Amino acid sequence: MTSTTGDLTIRPQHPKKVTLAKLAEPFSLELAADDAGVTVTGVTIDSRDVQLGDLYVGIPGAKHHGAAFAAAAAASGAAAMLTDAAGRDLARAAGVAELPILVSEGHPRAILGELSALVYGTDTLAAKTFGVTGTNGKTSVVYCIAQILEAAGLRPGLSSTAERRIGDEVIVSNLTSPESSELHGLLARMVERGVEGVAIEVSAQAIGRHRIDGVHFDVVAFNNFSQDHLEEYGDMETYFQAKLALFAPEHAHRGVVVVDGPWGQRVARESQIPVVTLATEYGQSADWHLAITAQTLDGVSFVLQGPEGAHFRGRVPVFGRFMAENAALALIMLHEAGIPLAQVEAGLANGLIPVHIPGRLEEITEGGNGPRFYVDYGHTPGAFEAMLDALGEVAEGKIIFMFGADGDRDTTKREDMGRIAAAGSDVLIVCDYHPRSEPPEQIREQLLSGARSANHATLYEEADPRAAIRLAISLAEPGDVILYAGPGHEDYQEVAGAFIPYSARDEVRGALREAGLLA
Ligand SMILES: CC(=O)N[C@H]1[C@@H](OP(=O)(O)OP(=O)(O)OC[C@H]2O[C@@H](n3ccc(=O)[nH]c3=O)[C@H](O)[C@@H]2O)O[C@H](CO)[C@@H](O)[C@@H]1O[C@H](C)C(=O)N[C@@H](C)C(=O)N[C@H](CCC(=O)O)C(=O)O
Ligand SMILES: Nc1ncnc2c1ncn2[C@@H]1O[C@H](COP(=O)(O)OP(=O)(O)OP(=O)(O)O)[C@@H](O)[C@H]1O
């Protein structure tokens, strides 16, 4: 049975006590002599998440100084606080007199990872650790790693945008890559549960914001790179450098890089750690090569060949050559960590890797000859291109595509998303996604303007995604495929500051039942 935890920060069930003196020394923290023997058992940077005995870390953020919540943290049972000098003054001025305070000279976030590792005992791990970065497909690769570890007889744990997972225990994800205090708490819980391999999705934002500090990955991977997050990075080079930073000795021992495109080739050249390369296209020189041998809507068969005769014949039960690529990358990462392909092969029936990823190309219908309906998390031009190219190769009937775009995020990708969506589909329905503070009709118009430039699909505009789902179903015939990109596993719509409950997967299920297409 699966159990779900909603706690912000997961912690070990049997924590150890660490004295403030032991924490102060390696990080040169200021500490009153009287407080040296005070002990803590956990770490959090959120006052609303404090548990008895925690070290509360008051971080200066974009909106608040966390030290402003020192009284609330103390009331919830924090044993001590770590903050900067401004935070200490803020807390003392607010009358927080009793709480022991460790003071750091620099930004507390810069030492948070190493310090959390010390508190949780995760500074060295027996489990193999795998980190995945890139623009599209990180979550998918992380799931492939976990599923392949299981096939190899090893107990997996994972952290992704969709969820964090330890065996059957599911922990809700807020960020793609958790804050480092949360990550080390999660790792400590995994150690208690006997996890032998951990796959972690690493966003560019996480690398720059110290969220993976204190983890020294056995193997990291870079899968692909295309436009996203320019609202934060401004240009592609800055975004690229943020991801390249993972390939450094302070973060990882070795890497695997997909070198199909120029960005991957640059990672292979500029990496500061040893890497092996994977090519999925003919004529590209690399250590490993992937060849697709057969594909239908129901799956992709492939052969992976590597150095010294390494060889794997496999299959993923989902359409799209990119899913075979994700699986191949995961296989090579395990191989690089010393887990032989033969050990994986022995645990699989006919090489079938049971890839099931929440909200990624998730089929809501149940196969068969009627129209098929998939919900997906793709929200970049690159993901649209990969999915629609793949569908174009295997779909027998019409491709009906529906999507909307994020408000308050990279607006420059919208025209491309519209154009690629219309070029690759027969029918395109533009609806709302998370408009946030932007006028939704303005977002739809930008998408439609891109779509018109492709001069291909029949275009529809239907703001309400619930109505758009029903429109898509009404236009579909047996053999057609409906692909709803964007919401994936999510269970809300963000509109003008409000989080409105909305699960695309549940809504599609309901609409298919109404239409008599699902039992
Ligand atoms: C821009 C950014 O990175 N913001 C992060 C930052 O928020 P902030 O600086 O605004 O924090 P703040 O509200 O000023 O609060 C300061 C401190 O006070 C604490 N606080 C605040 C209120 C309170 O009542 N009690 C309390 O303790 C906060 O926990 C925080 O430690 O610190 C917060 C606490 O950890 C994060 O949740 C928040 O991520 C926001 C939600 C975010 O949108 N992050 C994005 C940019 C992100 O990281 N995305 C990537 C990539 C996703 C992808 O690939 O698509 C990801 O890894 O998720
Ligand atoms: N290797 C790939 N190349 C291109 N597109 C892919 C690849 N793998 C998956 N995708 C597409 O990208 C979408 C997002 O996949 P996934 O959630 O695995 O990526 P992600 O990198 O974790 O995304 P995010 O950073 O937003 O969490 C998928 O739903 C699919 O449409």
TrEMBL record:
Domain Mur ligase N-terminal catalytic positions: 40-89
Q: What pathway is this protein said to act in by its record?
A: Cell wall biogenesis; peptidoglycan biosynthesis
Q: Provide this UniProt record's keywords sorted from A to Z.
A: ATP-binding, Cell cycle, Cell division, Cell shape, Cell wall biogenesis/degradation, Cytoplasm, Ligase, Magnesium, Nucleotide-binding, Peptidoglycan synthesis
- Could you state what the record's PTM comment says about this protein? Carboxylation is probably crucial for Mg(2+) binding and, consequently, for the gamma-phosphate positioning of ATP.
Mur ligase central domain: which residues? 132-333
Cofactor(s) it depends on? Mg(2+)
A single GO cellular-component term on record: cytoplasm
SUPFAM superfamilies assigned to the protein according to its UniProt record, in alphabetical order: MurD-like peptide ligases, catalytic domain, MurD-like peptide ligases, peptide-binding domain, MurE/MurF N-terminal domain
Which positions in this protein are listed as binding UDP-N-acetyl-alpha-D-muramoyl-L-alanyl-D-glutamate? S47, S203, R211
Positions with a binding annotation for ATP: G134, T135, N136, G137, K138, T139, S140
Source organism, top-level taxon: Bacteria
Q: What region holds the Mur ligase C-terminal domain?
A: 359-487
Supply the EC number(s). 6.3.2.-
GO terms under biological process: cell division; cell wall organization; peptidoglycan biosynthetic process; regulation of cell shape
Where located?
Cytoplasm
Question: Which family does the UniProt entry place this protein in?
Answer: Belongs to the MurCDEF family. MurE subfamily.
The cross-references to NCBIfam families, in alphabetical order and at most eight, read: murE
The protein in question is named UDP-N-acetylmuramyl-tripeptide synthetase
Protein's organism: Leucobacter komagatae
